[in-house]
Design brief:
Shape: elongated
Order of helices and strands: HEEHHHHHH
Helix content: 40-55%
Radius of gyration: 22 Å
Number of strands: 2
Distance between the termini: 40 Å
Oligomer: single chain
Length: 177
């Protein structure tokens, strides 16, 4: 069995870290309440992982994991090698793009604050105040958590790792005397 190259170790490590990170908070919704009689303010927060907050983020994670896994599995097979490499690279490059697109689709805090102040009705039965509804996120600058940024960086690391394998190697020629 061949010893894994440093890129395979980086690729596998980044993929494992991304998988773990995808279950950490990618979105946090914070709010405060004030008790009218006592004036006491209470801070609240609800978090959600990539899986429970955004379809686009989930697709980005799945594309990256599939690309890295496919690359590592097909790397040793010469018959599937080139086609699999290109397919995996395309998937790995698409993952951060899909993830960033999903982030950009979240309304900004400025857009949310520009509307008139209004009382919000109680949430529908079966949900609770502060419930994170998948693909109905708000205030991306305030509510997107560090898990998103770490996950996106890991997706880019995986894509760069795969791209580095396809880059042409410098042609080494012996020195002529």
């Amino acid at each position: 069995m061949l010893r894994p190259a440093w890129r395979e170790i980086v690729l596998a490590g980044a993929t494992v870290l991304l998988t773990i990170d995808s279950f950490l908070p990618w979105y946090t919704q914070r709010w405060s309440t004030q008790h009218l009689a006592t004036g006491r303010t209470t801070q609240h927060a609800v978090t959600a992982s990539a899986w429970s907050s955004s379809t686009g983020w989930s697709i980005g994670v799945l594309l990256t994991v599939a690309a890295a896994t496919g690359w590592l599995l097909c790397r040793r097979s010469p018959s599937l090698r080139r086609a699999a490499q290109v397919a995996c690279l395309v998937a790995a490059l698409a993952a951060p793009v899909v993830t960033a697109k999903a982030w950009l689709e979240i309304p900004s805090a400025a857009e949310a604050a520009s509307g008139p102040l209004a009382f919000q009705p109680l949430p529908a039965s079966g949900t609770y105040l502060g419930h994170v509804t998948r693909d109905a996120l708000t205030a991306r600058e305030l509510n997107v958590s560090c898990g998103f940024y770490i996950g996106t960086a890991l997706m880019i690391i995986v894509a760069l790792c795969l791209a580095s394998w396809l880059m042409p190697r410098p042609f080494l020629t012996p020195a002529h005397s």
